[in-house]
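User: Reviewer 2 asked us to show a designed sequence for the structure in our supplementary figure. I'm pasting the structure tokens here. Could you produce the per-position amino acids so we can include them in the response letter?
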């Protein structure tokens, strides 16, 4: 009696979702599980690396800014544990320069939040250019004004949108910060 085909079960790809926002993380884990993935979540970088040491995921979704270990440290840690892990980095602050650094460290792609599962799965499908194919154009480098704007927004968000406190941290006068903010509306 041959049981050769009876034991062949296609295993689901494993995915690790690393995000400090519990609601968002739970929603993504559930959405991946609904699509047939073996999905699990971690609320910070330490727990993510512990989970990866126990069972290295094939795919990982990593938030860039978290308390404790940063998303960049998690990307580096996951890649050192298993270089074949495909990683998509999520950033809520639109920090293109930092997201590009994550790609340089080994992430497959980066997306800005809010991103849904379909966006993330599309990010995982991005691969290196096959041999003989045309090379990708160099990534667009953000302008100095764009980088300054992203930094101001990040500091302002960290200060709970308190302009006076943000101005002190940035080392500029409050009115100068208000003039900079008047040029472009702040998106909360």
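Assistant: Here is a per-position design you can include in the supplement:
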């Amino acid at each position: 009696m041959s049981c050769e085909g009876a034991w062949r079960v296609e295993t689901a790809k494993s995915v690790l979702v690393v995000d400090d926002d519990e609601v968002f993380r739970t929603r993504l884990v559930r959405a991946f599980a609904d699509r047939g993935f073996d999905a699990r979540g971690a609320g910070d970088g330490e727990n993510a690396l512990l989970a990866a040491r126990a069972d290295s995921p094939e795919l990982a979704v990593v938030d860039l800014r978290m308390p404790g270990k940063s998303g960049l440290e998690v990307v580096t840690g996951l890649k050192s544990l298993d270089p074949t892990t495909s990683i998509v980095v999520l950033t809520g602050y639109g920090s293109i320069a930092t997201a590009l650094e994550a790609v340089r460290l080994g992430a497959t792609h980066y997306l800005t939040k809010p991103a849904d599962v379909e966006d993330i799965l599309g990010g995982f499908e991005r691969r290196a250019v096959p041999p003989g194919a045309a090379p990708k154009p160099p990534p667009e480098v953000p302008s100095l004004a764009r980088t300054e704007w992203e930094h101001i927004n990040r500091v302002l968000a960290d200060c709970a949108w308190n302009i006076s406190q943000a101005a002190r941290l940035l080392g500029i006068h409050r009115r100068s910060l208000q003039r900079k903010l008047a040029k472009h509306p702040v998106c909360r």
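For the response letter, you might also mention the following. Residues 1-9, 128-135 have pLDDT under 50 and may be disordered. Helices lie at 22-34, 45-54, 71-81, 96-104, 117-125, 144-158, 163-170, 174-183.
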